[in-house]
Amino acid sequence: MASTPITIDTINPKVLECEYAVRGEIVILAQKIQEELKNNPNSHPFDEILYCNIGNPQSLSQQPITFFREVLALCDHPAILGKSETRVLFSGDSIKRASQILDQIPGRATGAYSHSQGIKGLRDTIAAGIEARDGFPVDPNDLFLTDGASPAVHMMMQLLIRSKKDGILCPIPQYPLYSASIALHGGTLVPYYLDEAAGWGMEVSELQKQLESAKSKGIIVRALVVINPGNPTGQVLAEKNQKEIVDFCKREGLVLLADEVYQENVYVPDKQFHSFKEVARSMGYGDKDIALVSFQSVSKGYYGECGKRGGYMEITGFSPEIREQIYKLASVNLCSNISGQILASLVMNPPKVGDESYDSYFAEKNAILSSLARRAQKLEDAFNGLEGVSCNRAEGAMYLFPRIVLPNKALEAAKEAKTAPDAFYARRLLNATGIVVVPGSGFGQVDGTWHIRCTILPQEDRISAIITRLTKFHTEFMDEFRG
Ligand SMILES: Cc1ncc(COP(=O)(O)O)c(C=O)c1O
């Protein structure tokens, strides 16, 4: 082959350093097996791949919310708005909402670039939605609409990280967007460990210890990432704990990066979602006390519109000069996609009691969330019934993160195969059952402990089959490797 002008040794080393496990090695193998099954259905001891590796609800047959899709369709094809057939096919309030939204879009053109922060009218709607959620005022100029939460996280990392000496406190285990983004922007991930024995609790003493340790190494810690509800760990923070975290950030002068994309995914009656903004404001802290960024997305919740790429960040406690710089960063990408912007406004302002679509909207939402809660419980019970496996409660989000105590012989076999023990387990699970999970090593974990992350997203009628296959595999695996 002719020599290429760039080689793996000459590309940006930060790209090489960056890893993204949820689409990593196991998933690549799964895709290969899927192809083999297509060509020869008898090539493996199962007939389909069950993707439990990623929080992508609609890829596992979750249906979108009808009202949201009606409004989106009408916004994208306004020519049918006034037609009599449309009034038969679409609900009256979706027609009304689409007309209102189009009136807010300059030229009623969903195919045009918008303001770099997002269409002003949609930001007004989102601001009102956050106000209704939290009970505190929101300035629409604090909102930046983005293509999902991921670009917003990248933007903040780009803003905060100047060099390897800048550190970002991140939970371990963490969602790998954070480690990847910090690596890409050349910063240092400062880990703080969630306490598995305390239901993945977050201790301020641990934050303080890790902060001091980073400082002693010359790291300037700039921000704290909190994922609530947690991914991959599924815990929902208690309000008291959130207050301690807010005080810690205020005291230490850290930007609080609050990943709140799972705010609608809470499954237990004793926990409730509270945004960090609500918590900080209820403590009497305003813009001058704490710099806070809240990330939200249309990808999760009961809506699960991952492919539509919508989301926003609300930034508070930043000076006008800094906001100008963030605006400049947003402008480099021109704007986020308009369907995602519209969806973000719908998610933050869904039908209300008395609206024509309310009953069907509520029934769809409730069916999805209550089913997710049942699936979480079933899988949690199944994991806890396996030898050597312990699994914390899935209070929220879309995942379980069970710990697996692997027999020594399995650890040795993994070493021999030059792979992490949990990746060894995940690979064997895939090869035997077609179930795809992500090894815990992709999220970080306490040294010497091993986990897998499994989504609760397969449809309810598949959960029993997954549990049966998983249980059979695990029993055979332990029989093979038990000392
Ligand atoms: C905790 C968390 N934050 C952010 C994201 C990014 O999602 P998106 O870019 O689709 O909004 C995800 C996706 O799984 C996530 O789990």
UniProtKB/TrEMBL annotation:
Gene3D superfamilies on file: 1.10.287.1970, Aspartate Aminotransferase, domain 1, Type I PLP-dependent aspartate aminotransferase-like (Major domain)
Residues in Aminotransferase class I/classII large domain copies: 107-458
Classification via InterPro entries: ALAT1/2-like (IPR045088), Aminotransferase_I/II_large (IPR004839), PyrdxlP-dep_Trfase (IPR015424), PyrdxlP-dep_Trfase_major (IPR015421), PyrdxlP-dep_Trfase_small (IPR015422)
GO biological process: L-alanine catabolic process
Keyword Transferase on entry: yes
EC number, UniProt record: 2.6.1.2
GO molecular function ontology, one term from the record: pyridoxal phosphate binding
Pathway where this protein functions: Amino-acid degradation; L-alanine degradation via transaminase pathway; pyruvate from L-alanine: step 1/1; Photosynthesis; C4 acid pathway
Pfam families to which the protein is assigned, alphabetical: Aminotran_1_2 (PF00155)
Keyword terms of this UniProt record: Aminotransferase, Pyridoxal phosphate, Transferase
Cofactor: pyridoxal 5'-phosphate
Family: Belongs to the class-I pyridoxal-phosphate-dependent aminotransferase family. Alanine aminotransferase subfamily.
Subunit and partners: Homodimer.
Protein name: alanine transaminase
Annotated source species: Erythranthe guttata (Yellow monkey flower)
